[in-house]
Amino acid sequence: MDAPHDVVIIGSGFGGIGMAARLLRAGVRDVVVLEKADGLGGTWRDNTYPGAACDIPSHLYSFSFEPKVDWSRRFPRQQEILDYLWHVARKYDVLPLIRFGAEVTEARFDEEAGLWRVSTSGGDRLAARVLISACGQLNRPALPDIEGRDSFAGPSFHSARWDHGVDLSGKRVAVIGTGASAIQIVPELATTAERLVVFQRSAPYVIGKPDRPYRAWEKTLLAAVPGLYALSRARIYALYEARALAFIKYPALMRLLTWQFRRILRAQVPDPGLRARLVPDYPMGCKRILLSDDYYPALTRPNVDLVTDPITRITPSGVEAGGRVHEVDVIVYATGFRGADFVGPMKIVGRGGLTLDEAWRDGARAHLGIAVSGFPNLFLLYGPYTNLGHNSIIYMLESQFRYVLGCVRALRQTGLAWIDVRPEAQDAFDRRMRERMRATVWEAGCASWYMTADGKVVNNWPGFTFAYRRATRRPDPRHFRAGRARPIRPAAAGRAADL
């Protein structure tokens, strides 16, 4: 086993890379990042399907401490985002800290030593004074429980595990699902597949995506004029933040977006029968609102069929729905992720042998979405109640970075071995979230990936993002209990002020 490290981070997506960069800037040098895959990037490494892109503008979907003025387009695509993350990891010296192929299987808190004992699938064992989970919410693909799924004779794969060895040109392809990934995949496959069958369980709300490449003069201007990029970022933030009113306070405001949806649907789908099947049966915003200018036109192509009958089973030759077997050569599952499994399938064991699965038996809970009572010195990034429906998750992550750095500073300055959020503080936060969630559109009567199996929304933040930043400005000592043992090693001289 290695000597105890100051901080071990699990995951190397936006959360893990950004957290490591901030720790290094603050003078915390003994940091290890454990990554189960052979490359960094998290969801932007995994999702390489045709058309993969972000639905948040590029100027806002980036770290405030590392602006990128030369984004190629308004809404970044997968490869450019992944390239940006590699750039950040290199520039801030994070890359040498990453241990690839190191999937964490268990992390157990040693109360006597004040350390986390971490085990990986490769047999490595590490000790950490602080453990940070940066696994995210969209890293574990969800495959549907459909009879006969394993009987299909042709290639089949999840959208987040795209098989690029399968040539889809001239093939009959089924896409199961109509969520955020599917509306990007379908237009791409519609132009290459001989026949494309889209299986829709629930129609999504799709509105326009004002995407286009940035012109050369625009990028030159952004680089040359001080403050122009920051102004663009602030403008986009304000426009998107205003949408929170419709999600969290006044769901009736969704009528404006509903009008936009209906206008686009009428303009892009002339067939009234097809158009009727594309109208959702739930309030707008209850599920994720999707952005696309080419999804509806793709569904009107002569080689594309939309099937809304429930899938009965999968056969060796295709997909059965509505009493008919749709014979296909390839099946693509665009069926989303296990969003409520924030740290699965790792086993996390806290004080007194309590596992995180036991603590979260009735749903995930964490103070400010970051600290879990009974699990000292464990901090979650992109944890419960921190997902958004209206703005950039990078803004939320940067708020969490500051809070975690404040906790590390407290450990260092006080000589404490561990801090553990008090159960009453966590309970009070959870009650506030539950009370505020009732007024949101997410509890307007639909089932979504935001929900647990028993219908509780535990993923989303029911407020403004600037309110979350204010709440996480600094850790409140009154919210924590503490234990003494060995302190975190002092930071490098002259760097503590960054914390």
What's the gyration radius in Å?
A: 23 Å
Helix content: 25-40%
Specify the structural class. Answer: alpha/beta
CATH architecture of the largest domain: 3-Layer(bba) Sandwich
Shape summary: globular
Number of helices in the DSSP assignment: 14
Protein name: Flavin-binding monooxygenase
Organism: Actinomadura rubrobrunea
InterPro entries: FAD-bind_Monooxygenase_sf, FAD/NAD-bd_sf
Keywords: Monooxygenase, Oxidoreductase
Kindly describe this structure:
- The structure is a single chain.
- With 499 residues, this protein is α/β, with parallel strands linked by helices.
- The chain is built from 14 helices and 20 strands.
- The chain folds into two domains: 5-140 and 338-498, FAD/NAD(P)-binding domain (3-Layer(bba) Sandwich); 149-218 and 246-333, FAD/NAD(P)-binding domain, CATH 3.50.50.
- The chain has helices at residues 14-25, 43-46, 78-91, 182-190, 216-224, 228-242, 244-249, 254-268, 272-277, 295-299, 356-359, 393-414, 423-437, 465-471, and strands spanning 5-10, 31-35, 98-100, 104-110, 115-120, 125-133, 156-158, 172-176, 195-199, 206-207, 290-291, 304-307, 311-315, 318-321, 324-327, 330-333, 347-349, 378-380, 416-421, 480-484.
- Strands 1, 2, 3, 4, 5, 6, 17 and 18 form an eight-stranded mixed beta sheet that branches.
- Helix 1 crosses helix 12 and helix 12 packs parallel to helix 14.
- The radius of gyration is 23 Å and the shape is globular.
- The model is unreliable at 490-499 (pLDDT under 50).
